[in-house]
Specification:
The chain is about 45% helix and about 10% strand. It is of the alpha/beta class. Strands 1-2-3-6-7 form a 5-stranded mixed beta sheet, with helices on both faces.
Length: about 240
């Protein structure tokens, strides 16, 4: 194991799991020898596409992590839900099988997806973290469970708004039941706090869609999202 500020050794083969904050990713990539960059496996939340493309890593292995470890040494909590008892964690890419095997050994569930299904799943999780964190922040930083229980109508409406924008502007096709799946996940991690953070990687993606559309003289595709961002002073 190496720290986020340490160089990655050029020796060795196999996946290199990158478990660090999004804002540290550039430093990690730059400290990785070029011959080993294809082995980097990205585990972060949010929209990584533009970043990966910048470094020529858009085909690298990526995982959507739906499990959590509260503190070092704790047993992981799997992100299984009452709608998805087989879990929602997913992975795509060269090292997908290795990642799935590692999680299976830890008693966690994982699905290997093709690129198209993974992209849709990635956008789905982006909607979850953007919508629940924002609605929770509007209501004073309540937990995601409180958002789902007390403000479900608001968060579902926001998810539907973001989903429609993605279908139109990013040409994403989602499986039915997005809103119910995301609310079920919120129930499974009900204790998580809410806050709008890592803005460029999360809500910033939808804010950029809005700014670009308005700049072209079109209507804001995410008006409620934009209004809430202003309400919590995130923009």
């Amino acid at each position: 194991m190496v720290g986020r500020n340490d160089p990655v050794p050029v020796e060795g083969t196999g996946p290199i799991y990158v478990a660090t904050r999004n804002d540290d990713l550039a430093a990690v990539v730059e400290k990785t020898p070029e011959a080993r960059r294809k082995d980097l496996v990205f585990l972060q939340n949010g929209m990584l596409g533009p970043f990966l493309k910048k470094y020529g890593l858009e085909d690298n292995t990526q995982a959507l992590v739906y499990f959590a470890v509260a503190r070092k040494g704790d047993v992981p909590t799997d992100g299984v839900t009452d709608l998805n008892p087989n879990g929602l964690t997913a992975v795509y890419g060269e090292w997908a099988a290795d990642f799935e095997e590692t999680l299976t050994k830890a008693g966690l569930k994982c699905h290997m997806l093709d690129k198209g299904r993974f992209q849709a799943a990635m956008f789905e999780k982006l909607m979850w973290i953007s919508a629940f964190m924002l609605v929770g922040s509007v209501h004073g930083g309540i937990t995601v469970g409180e958002v789902e229980k007390s403000h479900r109508e608001d968060v579902v409406a926001l998810i539907q708004e973001l989903k429609k924008a993605l279908e139109r502007h990013a040409k994403v096709t989602f499986q039915d039941g997005v809103e119910d799946r995301l609310c079920a996940y919120a129930r499974s991690v009900a204790h998580f706090p809410t806050a709008v953070k890592e803005f460029p990687w999360r809500n910033g993606f939808f804010w950029n869609l809005s700014e670009e559309a308005v700049g072209r003289g079109e209507a804001d595709p995410c008006p409620s999202h934009s209004a809430m961002l202003k309400q919590v002073r995130a923009v």
